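ugh ok fine here u go
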Amino acid sequence: MNYSSQLKKLLEKVLEEKASDLHISVGHHPTLRVTGQLIPLIKEKKIEPIDSQEIADYLMNDLQHKRFLEEKEIDFSYEYEGKARFRINVFFQQGSVSLAFRLIPTKISTIEELNLPSILHEFVGRSQGLVLVVGASSQGKTTTLAALIDEINHTRPVHIITIEDPIEYVYQDDRAIIDQREVFQDALSFPKALRATFRQNPDVIMVGEMRDLETISTAITAAETGHLVFATLHTNSASQTIHRIVDVFSAEQQNQIRYQLSSSLLAIISQRLIPRIRGGFIPACEIMICNTAVANLIRENKIHEIPAVIETSSRDGMINLDRYLTDLVRKKEISLKNAIDYSLNPSEVKNLLK
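structure:
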């Protein structure tokens, strides 16, 4: 079989069906994910071990192949004939190779096009501080980050460094100079690449993911020392994010980190993508801005009180997730069931809608 033509056929199908993902797994037909639903391509033959192995070998270079065999999984990006980019994860399961493709749109959408709150424009104009975009996997964090970075690119003459694993969106320099560094290709690790930025004279730093103590610590230091830093975390709310960051550090370091975080944090944008009644998805957000009240609660380790501050600070631009969900229900964008399913406090959604 000609595996390059087989792969081309499948990637064309992804674009044709406007799928978000393609799964290649032994024993199954190639499968698309379209608006959240898995759709097997039953006209294609089921994947055999040799098929997925050959497709993976075709996609990987020698260095990637070596890393894959050593670590049993690998992430990388792939440009398809100038039409699209894909983030690909190759992994072993039961001794066979599987592949998961995520489509990365070639056009970077704006904050408005993504239906995100307009308060996000405020964060791109700041000269320093830490902005975190948080949420579970596949909830649009990378896409939101790209919108923020690209708005800076089109509006400010600054030096931007991104550290990613792998590079997903590719920026076209406009008013900014953008250097995109891919971990393993352009840098050995997130912490090493982030530490090196202090010698590279950036104004803005984007960290694809804060995975470990060293990356978190260095990102906070960068935000304290005159840089605007954007990063992501796999957490579900603002208060959970602060707990996660503080808990990474040893007990004797935690007071110091709370103090640093209270002075360097600008905002936490927590988002989830909700199925839309008319098809597709729409983001629902919680926005915490680190005003004086929030900073004091972080310093005093009263993080459990932060949701109450968010609830009462809408004039400052803060957004309560349950109110955002109920607004989407009232606008007939999402169903009541989905609002309840995606809320961290379903009874509050029901009360707000009464």
